What does this fold into?
Amino acid sequence: MKSLYALTRQIHLFAGLILALAILFYTISGVTFVYAKWIPREPTRDSTETMEIPTAVATNDGKLRNYVVTRANARGRTDGFHDTPTGGLRQQWNSPAMRVDAEVSADRTKLTITRAKIGPLNMLRYLHVLSGRGGGVGYLAWWLVLDVVSVAMLVFAGTGFLLWYRSTKDRRLGWLILGASWTYAVGLIAWLAWS
Amino acid sequence: MAPSAAQPIKARRNRHRWLRNIHLYGGLLCSSYLVVYGISSLLFSHPIGRLEREGPVREWVDTLKAPVTRDDPAGTARRVASELALVGRVNAPEWKADEGLSFTVVRPGFKYSVRAQESGVVALKGQRLGLTAVLKGLHDARQYPDSVPLSLWWNFTHITILVLLFSTVSGIILWTGSGRFTMSGRLVLIGGAVLGVALIGWLLR
It folds into this structure.
């Protein structure tokens, strides 16, 4: 039993140590959602540049797309090229730091690139909800961090309970707090789901 | 010499006992919240279609005590929702020529669509959105001033934020003062922080 206690303690400790920064990050970025109503909207800093597309590029679809990607020089997630309602071509990239929008005019002569730099608060929010595939290895790694932190929440609750149970003789206060917390949470979920 | 040397040790032990107790009992208090947040984060990150079972749409008609006026759609919508005891946030109230005042009331796991005529007759549609919608809705903590149980969750969110911040810092302080301040632990702490900062830096570059 002592070795189980030691193992539980090691899991609680080392999971906490390795994820300390990630937990602080998700807690602080979560605060920006909780208090969203009181936080003023953060504007992006936009810059737009328009350039002529060389004729040799404009007449070849493959070359045109390569040209747009090269000129945009953007990082982040993208869902590829789309036709615009006016007959042009458009691609957007989203990253926590910047949104890039590249649009080719309908006559394929002009390329307009708009870069919107995202402010620090919105960066935090973006990273808080960032998950799923796309964008490269870094985005996948971040998704993994999110999943590990999510599982860690369950692990901390479970191992924390075991550590309290094993290390405390008079458990009345603990049972009272635990009972109130779980009765409320389970009761609320049941009421919301089935009432 | 001995009492003065013992004094700081005693004070430190006292401080550690307080830190440990708040860490321990704060953790017990917020354990249910952490489990709800852990599960709902995974549901956001990996949506499972089979679990997202919406219930059938139920329709009924009700009558208000007072007629509905055209001015102040937002205020009128809140009054209608309150009179009909519809718990949730009032969204998108607007007057439509053929439908009257139209709006939705949404809370975790349930959605009402409301159409209130000037005469005071109200057509309602209600739909359960399932258990996963409840958990996701609780993750997206919002204020529900008309509902005591949901307002408590809002307060619970604040308590958990404080406990999480406190527990992360106090956990490290307790570990450094526990006599088990090992090199492997230090490496894990520093390694996790360096990797985290590097990853954020890479994503923000």
Remarks:
- Residues 65 and 120 of chain B are 7 Å apart (CA to CA).
- Helices of chain B lie at 2-45, 73-83, 131-139, 148-176, 183-204.
